[in-house]
Amino acid sequence: MKFIIGKKMAMTQIWNSNDKVVAVTPVQAGPCTVVQVKNKTKDGYEALQLAYGKRKEKNINKPQRGHFKALGLTPAHVREFRTEEAGSYQAGDVISVETFVAGDKIDVTGVSKGKGFQGVVKRHGFHGFRKTHGNKDQERMSGSIGPKGPARVFKGTKMGGRMGTNRVMVKNLEIVSVDVENNIIYVAGALPGAINSLITIKGQGELKVNQAPVKTAEKEEIKEEVKEEIKEKKVETEIKNEEKKEEAQAQATAPVVDAKQE
Predict the structure, then answer these.
(1) 244 domain residue, yes or no
(2) Does 225 map to a domain?
(3) Percentages helix, strand, coil for the chain, rounded to the nearest 5?
């Protein structure tokens, strides 16, 4: 299985190989760096953790900084993809749009647009009431919502409420074209979500990766530096704790002087 993370762009149209205009949605995909390789022995499952985008280091908390420090990354998004072939990859490998080709069938996942509080006509497709005499201001009402006997609303009743912002997957879409230079994948049809929203793409086939940008020797050096920093911090905290204990003991054993005796 092959996969990648991307950002949805505004829809457009291009000419396909049969000289026909096709409505497509461009996706600014990758490059995505493998941050962590998970296995069954340690994590209970096999998966690849991919990083996408960039953000300022000050906007990343300390645990995440330590997680990304070995690769020198400050990603904006991190997603996991389960695959049985995770053991054949290593942290630092880069996945680009080159792993996809025109004609691939893919599944696209995104978060649908938020539409706020909507009525039953828009949310569930109710046809509403007749526009005749006696139905003033009732054309888009929901009508009866339950029987008299229980005198309550059953769970799952179709009513007005929040609509959108749901995780949506559209299956069996086709890739029309791949722009390797600009890291853009043109997918036929519409995709879920708003413009600039995060999109994940999955498809069948072999996952192609580029060589890790950071060498293994450099990775080991960075890991050793991180370990030394952690040791130094532990020593500093232990020294501070000992000093606090000594101060507390000194205050406890110090003689109490009465102001009247003085």
Answers:
(1) yes
(2) yes
(3) 25, 30, 45
Instruction: Tell me whether residue 200 is in a domain.
Output: yes
Residue with tokens 């230079």: 181
In 3D space, the residue among 49, 24, 45, 26 whose CA is nearest the CA of residue 36 turns out to be: 49
Which residues constitute the domain of residue 49?
Answer: 2-114+164-214
d(CA 37, CA 81): 10
* Among 162, 182, 199, residue at a domain's last position: 162
Residue 253's pLDDT is 76
Contact of 80 with 3, CB cutoff 8 Å: no
| Within-domain flag for 261 | no
Place of tokens 């749009």: 97
Intra-chain end-to-end CA distance of the chain, in Å: 85
Owner of token pair 């060498």: 215
Q: Are residues 25 and 140 in the same domain?
A: no
Q: Which residues of the chain have pLDDT under 70?
A: 211-223, 254-262
Cis peptide upstream of residue 31 (ω within 30 degrees of 0) = yes
pLDDT tens for residues 174-193? 999 998 889 999 999 999 99
Stated pTM of the model: 0.71
